């Protein structure tokens, strides 16, 4: 008997990182020091600006940089390095106000038409980019020793094998998919196989055999250290590997500490790359039962269960040995295109990529990873009902329209999404996003 391992992937969660903070003016993909707003630190006039406050004034221009005029004296509620008196989630203005410095001179405290002290015109809202988690689920079976034409490529011809070509497409330090996207996405690795001893004795009782790297941002080095040392093993228990990577049991119930059980509110994705028909864990014979209706059904059922548990699956076929109809059924299951899944018009098929070269593999992974990069942002506060039209959202200084197909939309009181061509800009460039609401339209967190 081949023993079953149902929870080998839980350790991947140990190094999980939470989404990167991007505040006020959002530097997408940036980690510059001004991207994080500091904790409160008391009255800045008694600390950072001690000795500079208190000068008489009639308007802001009479005060030193970082100070504004209030009640006839220069003061500051905060600084760029000290949140001071500001509520959490409210940025500090250049003049030391909680919120935004008024643009109308009549609104400046101390002016003729001044508003009461501490009333702001609008606030820059702190936002956090939603970072997806992507696990690369890679077939480590013996057929990966072959080239794309089916020729055995063990040494000295191994560099032409599917195994090497796939790894190079992912791990090339100069433009490979993992290196390219490690700063924007939590990436993890799960290599899967089994060994019933038929081709490479002795048999290994563990099934599936999973070689994993916990998902995290900036994870290229950790993934390369594991992936680079591995070679193909033997069998292809794809359905069992999907359940292990997703962290679900045979009934589809999320396992404690698994990916499915992780409550992040962020997208969770498996990218399955396989070159062969599947077998199943259980016995020597079930692993040899390659491509049978039972083995194929096990894969489809596992991918459906992962989808129900909140994990989407993309499918990439390495070579042409796997039946296209079966792989299309797996891909459809990964997108919820089945009874009880997501809405899909009759006959709708999910994306399925069949590759026969390293270039096609690289393009397939690049397209998938680019597509799952997020254009969704969590707000450090709640937009009051009916006031979303007052939001001022700009990308690279250009205003975006609310509910415009190439603008922005409010997914919930605490989340906005950039859509259409504006989303493409965020994904493909070092974009700068600003989100601003009137003070009475936002409830700070």
Task: Give the C-level CATH assignment of the largest domain.
Answer: Alpha Beta
CATH evolutionary superfamily of the largest domain: von Willebrand factor, type A domain
Number of helices: 9
End-to-end Cα distance, whole Å, is: 55 Å
Give the averaged pLDDT, no decimals. 84
Shape: elongated
State the CATH architecture of the largest domain.
3-Layer(aba) Sandwich
Descriptive account of the structure:
This protein has about 450 residues and is an alpha+beta fold. It folds into three domains: about 5-20 and about 130-370, Rossmann fold; about 40-125, no CATH class; about 375-445, no CATH class. About 20% of the residues lie in helices and about 20% in strands. The chain has helices spanning about 160-170, 175-180, 220-225, 240-245, 285-290, 295-310, 325-335, 360-370, 420-430, and strands spanning about 5, 20, 25, 70, 75, 120-125, 125-130, 135-140, 185-195, 205-215, 270-275, 310-320, 350-355, 375-380, 380-385, 390-395, 400, 410, 415-420, 430-440, 440-445. The chain has a seven-stranded mixed beta sheet, sandwiched between helices. The radius of gyration is 27 Å and the shape is elongated. The model is unreliable at about 10-40 and about 105-120 (pLDDT under 50).
